[in-house]
Design a protein that fits this description.
The complex is a heterodimer.
Chain A (H helix, E strand, L loop, with lengths): L7 E4 L3 H12 L6 E4 L15 H4 L4 H4 L4 H6 L2 E4 L4 E5 L4 E4 L4 E3 L2 E4 L3 E3 L12 E2 L4 H10 L5 E5 L3 H12 L3 E6 L11 H13 L3 E4 L3 E6 L4 E6 L4 E3 L2 E4 L3 E3 L2 H5 L4 E2 L1 E3 L11 E3 L4 E5 L4 E3 L4 H15 L11 E6 L2 E7 L6 E7 L4 E8 L2 E8 L2 H13 L5 H5 L5 H13 L1
Parallel strand pairs in A: 1-2, 1-7, 2-3, 7-20, 9-16, 10-11, 10-16, 11-12, 19-21
Antiparallel strand pairs in A: 4-5, 5-6, 8-17, 13-14, 14-15, 18-19, 21-22, 23-24, 24-27, 25-26, 26-27
Helix pairs in contact in A: 1-9, 10-12
Chain B lengths: L2 E5 L5 E5 L6 H7 L19 E4 L4 H4 L4 H7 L9 E3 L13 E4 L1
Parallel strand pairs in B: 1-5
Antiparallel strand pairs in B: 1-2, 3-4, 3-5
Classes of the chains: A alpha/beta, B alpha+beta.
Chain lengths: 417, 102
């Protein structure tokens, strides 16, 4: 059987799994595809769940990437509300919770991450939420009425985006962050300072370097959070946004190589050449950075879907991509291209005291990353320069009078001369 | 429902009904039009939904925003009729529109 007619089973019907089914068809695959998801909704957009959708339109019809009919029309067997119990590698089958077995020629794990919980006294009280699924968002949305007190545990993207959405909904909001700065894991200190100032100016109470000791309540429902320093913060609702855990249990039980996620190569292959892993769950090489990591983002999900499809169909791999991320908070559009770890210097373009500036991270004269606040041209130009790996002049980068396009072009000229 | 024709990079045309209120990008993604990624989901943050609009329709689809123009500045093969398809909302007025994937 040729690759174009092979049987593909995809475990996980999130953004990555859904995109894989779609690109397989785009690339000419005509064999059976089964897409299995534990949630009751066809693959949908998760990013809006902490942003606009949280205070506005949470309609699954709007959030789905493709309507159910599309899967039927394209011969994709979409199994929702269905869990996979095991992978039987010797038989090349997956075993569903119902006991049913599905045979595969290529198996793709797109199982994503789940929200990490805080296992502390009182953490099972009602009113303590996490946010990952459309159901989670619906529950949280119901709690965010005007005048209510929201406490957010964790100053990462999800926590800060929910804080901004809750402010828009008229809640009073406190954010508790364990580290000395927000966005500690995902952004540089300049950006952290900016967002701290910005959230405080919107009325958010932000406590840095604090740890939650326990939750207290009236016996059933949460009424506040107790910190390890003894302070108490009153709450009507609590959102715990402290990151995600890779759903890699199936891979572990099947004996695949795992660590912080399912370990894959550049072609998204796991340690079993017939099993692939993509999206949030995959621990993958990052070719522009000579390192490996797990990226939780839609662009990563789409990119790895393409890599897996090409790999399954024995086609040329796509071009190496520049990882990128974005966030919307208040009227601030944050766009990040690249990864800052490994940088040895940085350059600021614009004024960090305003709502429009960028931070460029370099290793010597090579650009590794750009963090752009309401500066889309800097983001786009930076993304190009990261991909090209061309030497840059930091002084020109720092001069907002020189259009970013000219900085990028000049880099190209330097290389050819 | 408004009928939109998407023509992909290799010239394959797909005519589909797109629900008013969706963006041209969402209409393309829902029908798996190759080359329209929509990585940011329509937040005007990425330029992965770059299209060319037939010049006759320029007035009806409206102007670019500053954010969109900045992103397009760095897109590949930008032309006068370049747009980000996530920034154009489908309505009955766009019935019959043809969009070329950039």
């Amino acid at each position: 059987m040729g690759p174009m007619s092979c049987r593909v089973v995809i475990v996980g019907a999130g953004h990555a799994g859904g995109a894989l089914a779609a690109v397989l068809r785009q690339y000419g695959h005509e064999g059976p595809i089964t897409l299995i998801g534990e949630e009751g909704t066809a693959p949908y957009q998760r990013p809006p769940l902490s942003k606009a959708a949280l205070t506005g339109d949470l309609d699954p019809e709007t959030l789905v990437l493709r309507p159910n009919g599309w899967y039927i029309d394209n011969g994709i067997n979409l199994l929702l509300n269905e869990a996979v119990r095991a992978i039987d590698r010797p038989a090349s089958q997956v075993v569903l919770a119902s006991g049913q077995r599905l045979s595969y020629d290529a198996l793709v794990l797109a199982t994503g991450v789940r929200a990490r919980n805080l296992d502390l006294p009182g953490s099972t009280l009602a009113g303590i939420a996490t946010l990952r699924t459309i159901e989670d968002a619906r529950t949280l949305k119901g709690e965010l009425a005007s005048g209510r007190r929201l406490v957010v545990v964790g100053g990462g993207y999800v926590g800060l985006e929910v804080a901004a959405s809750a402010i828009a909904a008229g809640c009073s909001v406190t954010v508790l962050e364990r580290e000395a700065r927000v966005l500690n894991r995902v952004a540089g200190p300049t950006l952290s300072e900016y967002f701290e100032r910005r959230h405080r100016s919107e009325g958010v109470i932000l406590h840095l370097g604090v740890q939650v000791a326990s939750f207290f309540g009236n016996g059933s429902r949460v009424e506040g959070v107790k910190l390890t320093d003894g302070r108490e913060v009153a709450a009507d609702v609590v959102l715990v946004g402290i990151g995600g855990l890779p759903n890699q249990e199936l891979a572990i039980e099947a004996g695949l190589q795992t660590g912080n996620g399912v370990i894959v190569d550049e072609a998204t292959k796991t340690s079993d050449p017939r099993i692939f892993a993509i999206g949030d769950v995959a621990y993958r090489p990052l070719p522009l950075y000579d390192e490996a990591g797990r990226l939780e983002s839609v662009p990563n999900a789409l990119e790895q879907a393409k890599q897996a499809a090409r790999s399954i169909l024995h086609q040329e791999p796509p071009e190496r991509e520049v990882p990128w991320f974005w966030s919307d908070q208040y009227n601030v559009k944050l766009q990040i291209a690249g990864l800052i770890s490994g940088a040895d210097n940085h350059v600021i373009r614009g004024n960090v005291g305003t709502d429009r500036f960028s931070v460029f991270y370099l290793l010597g004269d090579r650009l590794l990353a750009v963090e752009a606040i309401n500066s889309p041209a800097d983001f786009m130009g930076g993304k190009r320069m990261i991909a090209s790996r061309e030497p840059l002049c930091a002084a020109r980068l720092a001069d907002p009078a020189i259009p970013i396009k000219d900085v990028a072009m000049k880099a190209r000229l330097l290389k050819t001369s | 429902m408004p009928k939109i024709t998407y023509i992909d990079r290799v010239g394959v045309a797909l005519s589909v009904d797109v629900k008013p209120g969706l963006s041209l990008m969402e209409g393309a993604v829902r029908n798996n039009v190759p080359g329209i990624e929509g990585e940011c989901g329509g937040a005007c943050a990425c330029a992965t939904c770059h299209v060319y609009i037939d010049p006759d329709w320029k007035d009806r689809v409206g102007p670019q925003s500053a954010m969109e123009a900045s992103l397009l500045e760095f897109a590949d093969d930008v032309r006068e009729n370049s747009r980000l398809s996530c920034q154009i909302t489908v309505s009955q007025a766009l019935d019959g529109l043809t969009v070329h994937v950039a």
